[in-house]
Specification:
Elements: E1 2-6, H1 14-17, E2 21-25, H2 30-39, E3 44-48, H3 51-57, E4 66-72, E5 75-76, H4 91-94, E6 98-102, H5 106-112, E7 118-122, H6 127-141, E8 143-148, H7 157-170, E9 178-179, H8 181-189, H9 196-202, H10 204-211, H11 215-221, E10 233-234, E11 237-238
Parallel strand pairs: 1-8, 1-9, 2-7, 2-8, 3-6, 4-6
Antiparallel strand pairs: 4-5, 10-11
């Protein structure tokens, strides 16, 4: 049974993920926003590699059927209706609509996972349900890959922490689980923090978000098991 953690999607190809079950994590904040949007009644979330792609994909759509959301360098994109705050993903804003989401790290990571057979979207706010579904996939396939979005193609602490928590839950009571080095390091990180809030608020991204006035986003993102939905990504749509 093979369980891998990749700290960024950099270098991964469709061939590396073909036939595999995959979990993508960008806890601050893209995957948290995706979970929140779908829990609030969004029809789907379409992750895009860039804001330009999001605008192009929606150019000929009915204006009342979609909403543009996203960030660059943590801040909302000019001209987009929403930023990348999970607190903005309310029924009033996204209910019944398709959200086209463009972020610095999370949506490119999701796009990079397209070659996988099954892609789950994970965060702290759906962690319990995510762990249960990921474990079922792992037992069925004897294989699972966890992809952290990272920060500008580099390691980030918060995604690795979530990955470590997930590895521990998935492999509980299972024998002969083969962890790659990334998975081993991720598990060791879980012992460093008191819990979700500690990990997300003290990491670099958490500190930056708080300094920019997005401290409530950090606290929201650390609310473990707030939702029970586990979004899946297929054919460019998360539902």
């Amino acid at each position: 049974m093979k369980l891998d953690v990749y700290f960024t999607p950099l270098g991964l190809t469709a061939g590396d993920l073909a036939g595999r079950g995959v979990v993508v994590i960008d806890v601050l904040r893209a995957t948290t926003s995706v979970v929140a949007a779908l829990a609030s009644g969004a029809r789907a979330v379409v992750p895009t590699a860039s804001s330009e792609e999001a605008v192009k994909m929606t150019a000929n759509l009915e204006r009342d059927g979609f909403v543009l959301a996203g960030e660059r360098k943590y801040l909302p994109i000019p001209g987009f209706a929403l930023g990348n705050s999970p607190r903005d993903m309310t029924p009033e804003q996204v209910g019944g609509k398709t959200v086209y989401l463009a972020t610095t790290n999370g949506t490119p990571a999701l796009v990079a996972a397209q070659g996988a057979d099954v892609v789950l979207v994970g965060a702290a706010i759906n962690f319990g349900a995510l762990a249960e579904k990921a474990r079922a996939i792992f037992i069925e396939r004897n294989d699972l890959a966890i992809i952290c979005a990272g920060h500008e193609k580099q390691f980030c602490l918060e995604d690795a922490y979530v990955a470590g928590r997930l590895v521990k839950d998935v492999k509980t009571r299972l024998r002969r689980v083969d962890l790659n080095d990334g998975a081993g390091v991720a598990v060791s990180l879980t012992q460093r923090f008191k819990g979700w809030q500690d990990a997300l608020s003290t990491c670099e991204a958490g500190r930056t978000l708080q300094a920019l006035g997005f401290g409530e986003d950090v606290r929201f993102s650390a609310q473990v098991d707030r939702f029970a939905n586990v979004p899946t990504y297929s054919e460019r749509r998360i539902t």
